[in-house]
Amino acid sequence: MLAWGVDFTTAELRTGVRQTDGFTCGPTVAMVASALLDPQYADGVADYGAEQHRIHEAANRIWPRKLGTTPWGVAATISRHTAELGTRYGWRRFRGRNDRLSDVTAAVDTGWPVAMLVGQGVPRHWVLITAHPQETVLRCFEPGSGQVREVTLEEIQQHRIPRLGFPRAYALVLPTG
Length: 177
Description:
Elements: E1 6-7, E2 12-13, H1 25-37, H2 39-44, H3 48-59, H4 71-82, E3 89-93, H5 102-109, E4 114-120, E5 122-134, E6 137-142, E7 147-152, H6 153-157, E8 168-175
Antiparallel strand pairs: 1-2, 3-8, 4-5, 4-8, 5-6, 6-7
């Protein structure tokens, strides 16, 4: 259970962890992933909104913040909290209908959350895959609503994931080793 009262294994949310505006979904996802992996960091975050904006500024030194957060920015932010664990995060493109997502399920099954960039036509929203409770189901934190939602692997592969805000996956940020 995350120090803020989020239990992703049961899809229970007992706190108001949400993105603060239309541009901080990436920083919110990076913040929650970092908190899941680094309890000391989680204990030190008192103001979620201020932390989202701090992360957004740090992750987007050159990229315009109004365009969101890049996959490499999300990966770098999470990696700051996993380097001590001997793991870095990287990103890859979603491979479309033939993407088996086996690296995603393997990561989540071993306790490593995976960020996923979704959109419609263009990439525009980040969510965080936190659990794999059934063979074909993934549990995702959706920062716009602050809710945990379930989607199937097939829904992701078939570009039918509107419960996450948008139907199509574009990129994944996951541990690389």
